[in-house]
């Protein structure tokens, strides 16, 4: 059986044993029933902390962007889509992962197994593809500023493609995963066991998702921002005069646009930094399954939690580069403080009326 969350994830021995060909069943004498170990307990605790922070920060960001103060109108649908994808990761992936590690085996039935594995991969695809759309938008705005009037329509079309591709590429999860029960051990797991007749087929399936979920988006985003940096550099070289060369890049690109560019670059970098170790571990497992015996269990858990940290980074980065978001949060806290200050007298008066 594979990792409890997705065929992409490197299996963790405490949750489920590795996927095996359907033509071979592991002898019970060599297979131990997974348990809720201390490493898994750390994963659950860390996941719950990230869940609380990601839920509060992304909901606040959703409310702030929805109010329409910032960002610009053509960028707002992109940020709303990114927040929506992060919220899917927050409210689907994180609670499911925590509960699943606590229960160890699967208790949700076959249908729920398929749906939740689909939603997990769908959320991951949506997050990656929306970052690609944001990168393409910044690329077009910087290199072709005169066509920015069409940005709103172009972004809506790209978002439609991103969400559609996310659904299509995650759909195989509905057919690959199912609830598998080992009667002799009285153990049930949501896994890909029996879906592939040969191990290389599962490796090909995993590599396909790795390429479409991580490699292709990373190449597109790298290309976009490389061209943007090259464009800025060439613009500097075209201008003559030492005094001009001492100026900042905001003389070539408007200050607000440069700030948005920096924000999107940092968001993309956070995606790369958070998820790269986890995917590299997955590649190692796909080609060398015996690595589970030599890799400490906590490594798998820590890297998965570190990947989920990306969901918390986006609102923090957005708030750092967007004063209006910080102002909205400050106004919200001040309002709650005023309401709390008024609450005791009101409750006191209500008790007097009752008495």
From TrEMBL:
Q: Where in the cell is it found?
A: Cell membrane
Q: Name one GO cellular component term.
A: plasma membrane
Q: Which PROSITE patterns match?
A: G_PROTEIN_RECEP_F1_1, G_PROTEIN_RECEP_F1_2
Q: Enumerate the GO terms in the molecular function aspect.
A: G protein-coupled receptor activity; peptide binding; protein-hormone receptor activity
- Where do the segments described as Disordered lie? 1-20
Q: Which residues form the G-protein coupled receptors family 1 profile domain?
A: 57-318
- List residues traversing the bilayer: 44-66, 78-98, 118-137, 158-177, 207-230, 265-287
- Superkingdom assignment: Eukaryota
Task: Enumerate composition-biased segments (Polar residues).
Answer: 1-16
- Family note: Belongs to the G-protein coupled receptor 1 family.
- Which protein, by its recorded name, is this? Type II GnRH receptor
Q: Which organism is it from?
A: Takifugu flavidus (sansaifugu)
């Amino acid at each position: 059986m594979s990792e409890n969350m997705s065929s992409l994830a490197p299996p963790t021995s405490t949750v489920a044993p590795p996927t095996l060909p359907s033509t071979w069943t592991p002898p019970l004498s060599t297979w131990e029933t997974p348990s809720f170990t201390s490493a898994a307990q750390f994963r659950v605790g860390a996941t719950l902390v990230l869940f609380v922070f990601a839920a509060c920060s992304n909901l606040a960001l959703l409310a702030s962007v929805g109010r329409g103060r910032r960002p610009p109108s053509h960028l707002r649908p992109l940020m709303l889509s990114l927040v929506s994808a992060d919220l899917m990761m927050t409210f689907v992936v994180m609670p499911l992962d925590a509960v699943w590690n606590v229960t160890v085996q699967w208790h949700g039935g076959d249908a729920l197994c398929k749906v939740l594995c689909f939603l997990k991969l769908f959320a991951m695809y949506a997050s990656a593809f929306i970052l690609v759309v944001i990168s393409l938008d910044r690329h077009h705005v910087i290199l072709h500023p005169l066509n920015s009037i069409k940005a709103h329509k172009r972004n809506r079309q790209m978002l439609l493609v991103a969400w559609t591709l996310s659904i299509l590429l995650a759909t195989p999860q509905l057919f690959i995963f199912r609830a598998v029960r080992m009667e002799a051990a009285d153990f049930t797991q949501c896994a890909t066991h029996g879906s592939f007749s040969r191990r290389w087929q599962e490796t090909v399936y995993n590599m396909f998702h790795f390429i479409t979920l991580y490699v292709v988006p990373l190449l597109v985003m790298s290309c976009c921002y490389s061209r943007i940096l090259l464009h800025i550099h060439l613009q500097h070289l075209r201008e003559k005069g030492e005094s001009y060369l001492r100026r900042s890049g905001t003389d070539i690109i408007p200050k607000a646009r440069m700030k948005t560019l920096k924000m999107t670059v940092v968001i993309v970098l956070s995606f790369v930094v958070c998820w790269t170790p986890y995917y590299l571990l997955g590649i190692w497992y796909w080609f060398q399954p015996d690595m589970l015996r030599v890799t400490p269990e906590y490594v798998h858990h820590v890297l998965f939690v570190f990947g989920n940290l990306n969901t918390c980074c986006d609102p923090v980065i957005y708030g750092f580069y967007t004063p209006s978001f910080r102002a909205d949060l400050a106004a919200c806290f001040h309002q709650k403080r005023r309401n709390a200050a008024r609450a005791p007298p009101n409750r006191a008066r209500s008790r007097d009326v009752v008495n």
